[in-house]
Amino acid sequence: MENPTSRPIDVAALEGHAGQLIEQGRIEEATQCLRRLCARPDARPNAWFRLLMLLEMQGKVEEAAAALGEARRRLPPNPGFTLMEAKILRRQEKIEQAIAVLEPAAKRVSGGSRIPFQYELGQLYDRVNACDKAFDCFLEANRGAAESPPGRRHDNRQTSEALKRIRREFRPFGDVSADPERAAPVFLIGFPRSGTTLLDQIISSCPSVRVAEERSVISNIGARLFQMANPDADTPWFVHPDYPALLYRAKEEDLAAARRFFWREHGLQPEGILFTDKMPLNLMHAGIIRKVFPQAKFILALRHPCDVVLSCFMQEFHLNPFMARFLDLSDAAHFYDEAFSLWDHYTKILDLDVHVIRYEDVVADFRPTAASLLDFLGLEWTDAVLEFDKTARGKTRINTPSYRQVTQKIYTRSSGRWLRYRKHMESVLPILEPWVLKHGYSMEPTGTED
User: Fold this and answer.
1) How far is CA 263 from CA 101, 133, 157, in A?
2) Tens of pLDDT along 85-101?
3) Segments making up each domain of the chain, as ranges
């Protein structure tokens, strides 16, 4: 009888394993798995496409270009390879060449396959200041995503009403006991595309810091507390009318169990390590964080609200009930307003320890801005912070669409980008202007934009 351990691993099984690693943000492991898979003669186009995607995302441009050439030698023509060629050319700053490659290819694809082509073409048009063409591409891509099965799965009104209701019902807590066993974590929060990944890499450059990137542990704590209080409910905890009321009924043992779950999910940290949970939209969950970790510190990343909302509209996200709100520019602006209205309410009624840091200040005045952040965290300055991009390239786990940017040196081309799209954003500016002014920004050019 054949020894089953001697059989070659099935291609589909290897692809599935690589997909799981990607979902978990274990990028280096996924890359190695895909390299082994693509070395096989029976590797399929999807494996090559994923390998190219990961190499490009990590900034390994020469390796990605070589792998693309090998894929094209071994496999029939594939639209996905043309898309990756354009992405690699964009990495190489060959923008006009990338447009020449992608424009005719985009016309040959249809349906859901067209969506990533439109997102990429929009990014390319943006780089050459063809703003009308770029906006039209993002508009088409987002409409296609909204009409796709994942897009139709989400009801944006549900999350909108939940945020408004939580703000109305959230009230101060009584005294809450701190964790007697270990120091409270730090929470790195902000609206998506506000620079949280850049701040992650800056503080990760300090040897005594560990940052966990974009894991839904706090959301899962909310779900666990909700399930204990509502065992028969099938509604997501955040939109259920029993939240936030359930927090005021939670017992000390419930909160202790929540803390144990948090550390079990993230892994117990060695003595002397400052642990930071980076999940931007924990902005909305500051109340539950304050209940479970009353001594937690918060780093709030800010960026010009108009730039943030535009950037979210231009980004291809993995859709969930919140990311789906970026498929429509008006809904994205309302989401920003609702999320920060809730955060503003938290700051007024809860004793939160918060350090606010603006993306534009990091870009314009890096060293003092970074030093202020480290001082808030009680960390000594290290010159390794100045080479944060090396920290990013050395990461073995990453789960954020900003990864392409933070593996590069700081650039300013995204600051003030919204001004080039002002006519496209006129309908949402009244929603965002109060937050622009509250966060210390201007609705007019400041002279610092590229």
Assistant:
1) 48, 47, 34
2) 999 999 999 999 999 99
3) 1-76, 87-153, 157-438
CA distance 250 to 242: 12
What is the Cα–Cα distance from 337 to 350, expressed in whole angstroms?
Answer: 20
Output the CA–CA distances (angstroms, integers) from residue 98 to 83, 94, 104, 105, in the order listed: 9, 6, 11, 11
The reply to whether CATH 2.30.30 applies to domain 87-153 is no
Q: Can you say how many angstroms the Cα of residue 129 is from the centroid of all Cα atoms in its chain?
A: 25
pLDDT digits (tens, 9 = 90+) for 160-212: 999 999 999 999 988 788 888 888 999 999 999 999 999 999 999 999 999 99
Tell me whether residue 401 is exposed, middle or buried, using C-beta atoms within 10 angstroms of its C-beta: 0 to 12, 13 to 18, 19 or more. middle
Helix, strand, or coil (residue 151): helix
Distance from C-alpha of 379 to C-alpha of 265, rounded to nearest angstrom: 25
Residue type, 330: S
Q: What is the pTM of this model?
A: 0.91
DSSP-H helix ranges across 314-409? 329-349, 359-364, 366-376, 388-393, 403-406
- Fold for the domain defined by 157-438: Rossmann fold (3.40.50)
SS3 category, 186 = strand
Residue 84: both structure tokens together:
């990756």
Residues of the chain with pLDDT below 50 are 1-7, 396-397
Do 431 and 97 form a contact (C-beta atoms < 8 A)?
no
